[in-house]
Amino acid sequence: MKADVAIIGAGPAGLMLGHKLVQAGIDVLLIERQSPDYVLSRIRAGVLEQVTVDLLDELELGDRLHREGLPHHGFNLADGERLIRIDLEELTSRCVTVYGQTEVTHDLMAEAPRRGLSIVYEANDVVLLDLESETPGVRYLKDGAEHIVRARFVVGCDGFHGPSRQAIAKTGKAYERVYPFGWLGLLADVPPCNEELIYANHERGFALASMRSPTRSRYYIQVALNEKLEDWPDERIWDELALRLGPEAAARITRGPSIEKSIAPLRSFVFEPMRFNNLFLAGDAAHIVPPTGAKGLNLASSDVAYLARGLIQWFKSGRRSGIDSYSETALKRVWKSERFSWSLTSLMHRFPEAGAFGRRMQVAELDYIAGSRAAQTSIAENYVGLPL
Ligand code: APR
Ligand code: PHB
Questions:
Q1: What separation in Å is there between the alpha carbon of 112 and the centre of ligand 2?
Q2: What is the mean pLDDT of the chain?
């Protein structure tokens, strides 16, 4: 089997890159370990920066996003007493779009067959081959039979646990911060408690009120890493949300049965460089942000925008400058998003080891933000997404 580019992983990064390249007439094979149903069952964040919306528009895949996505012109930080509104529109003239990552993935997957984007699902035991040669490859098992695809470039879009970064771990450097807590998420078909998102810092820990649509809510609470889902029946989560989000929001919470519940750890991680010879890394394969600020998918989008540009340039004109500068260019934006996600995480969560002083620092910073247009502008600029 042959392709111009073999992409490992059909999450949002792999799918967006695959579509971009196919749109430019480049032959792509996407290799995914899971089934389509499994890929679509994963619930992830749901706040899109303009970078992501633009990418989907360029692919002419933005119709449903524009119909069903909710433009959000602001969001709120809660400090236990009040809501501090960050007016994105007023401070940056831009906004974000609330549209689930699951929906983005669905739109990209549904259109793949019509556009000639080939995807092999349920491919097992992926191994990367000959990355230093001009015909690198990917070997995998499908229905028990071994296949090898040879390509000019291989792109690892296989998430944090995939084989691509592991194959080149010794050629770069990993930077990591693991947080001493996780997020317990709950999805329910009930109207959201607020028109805009609320990120709450409460004595009992962080809480987030988010949404997918006017009839579907997404909530999160900070929990200790050793918490078990079975100890969190829905009512216990609703009770905790009501406490942490504060009385105003609590009065407007509509409770209902969860349709999904999960606990995810929080991590900051960057691998440098995002390239080894003819292998490129994009999305979660190269970097992880804690979900505070919803930068994960949006960073995957900026990686894809830079890498697609470089690869298309290479295939169309043989110029190497785009692929040669990919890692450095992408990492500049990655590190700024890492900084923002880390700083919003640090500001909004209860850190067991930070003690009373740490808590006072958070309260002082929130009070400063509440009174400073400069501080709010800085948060807003980062939240809507830095320019490409
Ligand atoms: N072989 C083939 N595919 C694999 C393998 C493997 N060994 N390991 C992982 N994959 C697939 C996963 O099944 C998944 O579909 O790679 C894909 C990676 O997708 P994501 O984890 O969604 O990562 P990415 O596409 O970079 O998206 C980044 O999505 O997951 C969120 O937090 C993330 O919001 C961020 C964004
Ligand atoms: C979500 O809706 O799932 C969500 C929103 C904002 C975040 C993280 C997650 O910062």
A1: 27
A2: 97
